[in-house]
């Protein structure tokens, strides 16, 4: 078994290092900033240094924590763990100086740490500036350790009390650069790990077969990292697939099942059934054999502009795009925004078996505003069943009961209690819907919303609406049959069951996410990025004369340029010039990552790019 190399920095009297020496499978390298002569005079330091050397540990003096690679040969620079207990610039240095020290230290640590290594930083109560500090200092008066570490590519993965009394022989020293102890009551140990770098996604061409011909199209930039991820494939351990499989298994006990996922195309064409055109991703196709990828990418520049950048367009009073724009919308394809039309198509083709529960599932794509539960892509699961006229209510109740049983079982296994799952009639619906439910109510006439309550308050918040149920009469099937449709948002269900607070985490490429769900087992999710820093920027602009502002497209640009790092967009001011009638808007953008280190500089660059794209 490989030996774990541990580096300790800023040791005052080496008592902490001495407590670690002798641990099995660990090689300790203990260092301090001062010379050996300066340190040896401190109480117990000489004894600790002797103990370290006798145990085989290395003791190194005059080590600058901001230039670590200069102190170790290349073959000895790989450390599995770096400890820096109670760093300080010395004497009466303020928070700004100590932030700078930490910033240089983290950059230096990145050069000598293994890929899977950890950096442990112990700080006195309140210094870190995270919610773990009790009491918590004002942000400007803290060391802002998580934001500082993000600048070097680190995320805070754990934080726990620094219990000095449990460390054998440990005695803190160094108060204002003197051989004096300081208060460590309430101190915290912050554990940092490397973040995956912020991705840069090149334009992507997707090749599919459509209407018996091969075609290619440029994937909208905001979806490049989400297309063809294969979450629902057989070899997937993703919790979204597990939820789907558990639901299917439960429903198969009551209904004969038939999966029809294989025939679902990513692209749709034709009437949108009343859906606002600005909510779909428009696509221009090009025959695969006639153009190269580079030529097609260049030729699709206007399509990308139409999809993401042209956020001031002529629309009617309901927000529908004016078809007299010269773009002939009806002839364009668009990424499927729902699977319900496919279910309807199955019925109309006559490939429908009455009494059988037909199941469709797959990702769907929608432009939407940036809110906590609004997803530009998610996995939808649709159930379709035909029953005799007059029996639709009992079918709906049976369908809901089996969905309930499955979700109750999953949620109780994961969190230990049963959530409340109920139907809310659409007719009496007054609560604000999440994006999923609101869109479905446009696609078809909804009769019931499926609400999942995961707390004890007995009320549904916006994120709790996980599905819809409706019925329809199709004479093509039989005058005696009524078709029942149910649609579920698998992503929202997985989030609510596993306690995942941010939908973006479902799409992370960080392996620490799927590691928490071995062999598809559902568990309560524990975030590996705690208290991520957030950054606020404002942007203001004039709305071009005579044009309607398209807020959904505006939000889509923000998603695209930031790589989904914008978590909130709020209108904070508007102004109309009395003389000319010109209107200006001011929006506030909040940037935050759920799984990656995000620095102030990176956000500033995103904001500049955003300003460029909307002008």
Automatic annotation (TrEMBL):
GO terms for molecular function: ATP binding; phenylalanine-tRNA ligase activity; rRNA (uridine-N3-)-methyltransferase activity. Pfam families: BMT5-like, FDX-ACB. Its main location: mitochondrion. InterPro entries: aa-tRNA-synth_II/BPL/LPL, BMT5-like, Fdx_antiC-bd, Fdx_antiC-bd_sf. Its EC number is 6.1.1.20. GO terms for biological process: rRNA base methylation; translation. It catalyses: tRNA(Phe) + L-phenylalanine + ATP = L-phenylalanyl-tRNA(Phe) + AMP + diphosphate + H(+). Keywords: Aminoacyl-tRNA synthetase, ATP-binding, Ligase, Mitochondrion, Nucleotide-binding, Protein biosynthesis, Transit peptide. Residues 530-615 form the FDX-ACB domain. Gene3D superfamilies: Bira Bifunctional Protein, Domain 2, Ferrodoxin-fold anticodon-binding domain. It is found in: Mitochondrion matrix. One of its GO terms (cellular component) is mitochondrial matrix. Belongs to the class-II aminoacyl-tRNA synthetase family. This is phenylalanine--tRNA ligase. It comes from Oceanites oceanicus (Wilson's storm petrel).
